[in-house]
Amino acid sequence: MRRMRSILIFVLWLSSGNILAQVGGQRVEANAASLDAQAEKHALQILSKLTERVIVSAADAMPADKYGFAPTDGEFKGVHTFSQMVKHLSATNYILAAAALGEEPPADAGDELGPEAVRTKAEILNYLTGSFARLDKAIEAVGQKNVPVKSSPISPLKGAEVTRLALVVESLAHAFDHYGQMVEYLRMNGVVPPASRP
Fold it and tell me: What are the average pLDDT values for consecutive 10-residue runs of the chain, which has 198 residues?
């Protein structure tokens, strides 16, 4: 768990200089340090696979009969159920990956809620793994000038701020935010998250 956070922080740190330079409209001279698309792509692929592994294993670890669980004790009024959270995470991956590929978001992603027809644990796990496959396509396009990038209504990045790299990083950061919530839901149900097991 600590290693994953360290890797995420490292990749975000590596990306931040390039993202800030792009946002600020600064131009990097040809012989100065610049974005190495292959190195960025490779780092993102590693982080994406790590993220996918811990999130899919956590989603799989929750028993099917607990997918409807939402905490009720304390300040949890109106929070998503476990299944809604996993679908939301997945829909966000699909939406941001589409923007990174210059495409319209999938119609069934809804307002970040995911398809209504996806209900069972098996269907939700398929939707989740499919969302990471789509994110992998967006990562593959990092550095490709012939693949357009669009802004997304769910992203705080607008206009010239939008880059493929930034959308992918945003999606991974969002996924890890929900992973933390998934861990809490698992532990509230007596399940030790697979990434925390010896």
Answer: 49 48 43 70 95 98 97 87 97 96 91 92 98 97 90 91 94 96 96 94
- Token representation of residue 117: 């027809």
Q: Give residue 51's domain range.
A: 2-196
CATH of the domain at 86: 1.20.120.450
φ/ψ (deg, to 5) at 112: 65, 20
The Cα–Cα gap between 148 and 142 comes to 10
How many structural domains is the chain composed of?
A: 1
How far lies 187's CA from each of 58, 59, 191, in Å?
A: 11, 12, 5
Q: Please give the structure tokens belonging to residue 50.
A: 């790590």
Question: What one-character-per-residue DSSP string does 103-141 give?
Answer: -PPPGGGTTTT--TT--SHHHHHHHHHHHHHHHHHHHHT
What is the structure's pLDDT at 76? 84
Given a contact cutoff of 8 angstroms between Cβ atoms, the answer to whether 164 and 138 are in contact is: yes
Per-residue pLDDT, 34: 67
Q: What is the DSSP letter of 103?
A: -
